[in-house]
TrEMBL record:
InterPro entries: FAD-dep_OxRdtase (IPR006076), FAD/NAD-bd_sf (IPR036188). This is FAD-binding oxidoreductase. It comes from the Bacteria. Residues 5-358 form the FAD dependent oxidoreductase domain. The lineage of its organism: Bacteria, Bacillati, Actinomycetota, Actinomycetes, Kitasatosporales. Keywords: Oxidoreductase, Signal. Residues 1-21 form the signal peptide.
Length: 384
């Protein structure tokens, strides 16, 4: 039996993870990226591996397994370079945020996810950047961590190339077509590549690329500022981050306050993110740089250590966000050789999804863990 030739479109964390998983199994792989691999959402991400607040149950399980997969990877030298299992401290500053933490911890512990309520002093013991006098109480999620995504994409692709994969940058794909039993990948410059199987992992561009091939996978688009629920800005596609200069005493943990997140970054820097950050201003508007002062001001309200720390960079990413908020993973209709792979929480999920998807592509074994996430749920009337 011939080994199938697989073409992967998109060299973000998802495409790179699948390319690597296939290449190490000696599958001929070509990865095409419209830009340079690793420069899409995977380069502008808060990169927090976690399964908090993921609903429904199947999506929570997928993310919990995604986090567990990172812990398995951290047993390898490569995995330890990317995954930093430092845990996450969430701080309550008032009665309402404390009650919210009660609910989150109760819900997660009931599902077997490690989470506990701690005092402000215990929180300060976990990370000295926390001032116990500015904290009512806190919660601790010991298994969570952050991922050095840029390094991970680069390492995965280097390793894949070393065992024979081909990676082509600046090769935008225009569409896909059926060609006998195979799938034709048509590049923007007219070049055509025939593949036994194609994985479309083009991040936020997936919806439009698939639509041009007659496949419906609706995503929340960049200009779409509608909220999924009143006041819930996390679900707009655009998200912003600010990177600080290096702290004198590096942040030890991921931290969350009621209105923002902070995580360690290479070189002692800190990445600041916040619900709603970036969602109101178009990416092309210079007002987007207002995110830096907004986020550092929020940090300084709770953490005195940031008083004299400047912001060095503002980054804005477009979340690959399927319209129903859930992962899309599976073969498509009407192109049965085309596998769509797009998700938010793609940092948490990339290694685990790569493992499941590789099994489906190569062994023809349907992963029950993906049954709730097939792209065919969007087929038929009622979807864009
Ligand atoms: C601000 C922000 C915060 C986030 N925080 C978290 C978090 O804390 N935890 C978490 O798990 N997830 C988080 N995410 C989501 C996560 O970053 C993404 O789900 C993940 O990076 C997606 O990876 P990807 O490979 O699907 O997409 P991308 O990294 O965007 O890669 C897609 C690639 O496809 C290429 N491409 C596009 N169109 C074409 C084409 N026509 N032809 C060829 N190539 C093409 C692009 O050039 C790009 O390189 C966050 C995202 C943002 C924006």
């Amino acid at each position: 039996m011939n080994t199938p030739r697989v073409v992967i479109v998109g060299g973000g964390l998802l495409g790179a993870s699948v390319a690597h998983a296939l290449a190490v199994r000696a599958v001929p792989v070509t990865l095409l990226d419209a830009a340079a691999p690793g420069t899409g959402a995977s380069a502008s991400t808060f990169a927090w591996a976690n399964a908090q607040k993921k609903k429904p149950e199947a999506y929570f399980r997928l993310n919990a397994e995604g986090l567990a997969e990172y812990h398995r990877l951290a047993e390898t030298a490569a995995g330890r370079r990317w995954f930093h299992p430092v845990g996450n401290v969430e701080i309550a500053t008032d009665a309402a945020s404390s009650a919210a933490l009660d609910a989150v911890v109760a819900d997660l512990t009931e599902r077997g996810y490690r989470a506990e309520r701690i005092t402000g002093r215990q929180a300060a013991g976990l990370d000295p950047v926390i001032d116990p006098d500015r904290v009512l109480d806190a919660a601790w999620f010991p298994d969570e961590g952050w991922v050095d995504t840029e390094r991970m994409v680069a390492d995965l692709l280097d390793d894949a190339v070393a065992v024979g994969a081909e990676v082509r940058a600046h090769c935008p794909v225009a569409r896909f077509e059926q060609s006998g039993a195979r799938t034709k990948v048509v590049l923007a410059d007219g070049e055509e590549i025939l593949a036994d199987q194609v994985v479309c992992a083009a991040g936020a561009a997936t919806g439009r690329l698939l639509a041009d091939s007659g496949v419906t996978v609706p995503l929340v688009e960049e200009g779409d500022r509608r909220l999924r629920a009143p006041g819930d800005e996390r679900y707009t596609a655009v998200g912003g981050l600010a990177d600080t200069a290096a702290l004198r005493v590096p942040l030890r943990r991921i931290l969350h306050t009621p209105d923002m997140g902070l995580r360690p970054a290479p070189g002692g820097r800190v990445v600041l993110g916040g619900d709603g950050a970036g969602s109101r201003v178009p990416r092309t508007d210079h007002g987007i740089f207002g995110l830096g002062p907004m986020l550092i001001d929020r940090a300084r309200k709770v953490f005195p250590a940031f008083a004299d720390v400047p912001v060095e960079r503002v980054r804005v990413g477009v979340r690959p966000l399927p319209a129903d908020g859930l992962t899309v993973a599976g073969f498509t209709e009407p192109l049965p050789g085309l596998y769509a792979l797009v998700t938010h929480s793609g940092v948490t999920l990339a290694p685990y999804l790569a493992w499941l998807v590789t099994g489906e592509l190569l062994d023809g074994r349907e992963a029950p863990e993906l049954a709730a996430f097939r792209p065919t749920r969007f087929a038929g009337p009622g979807h864009r």
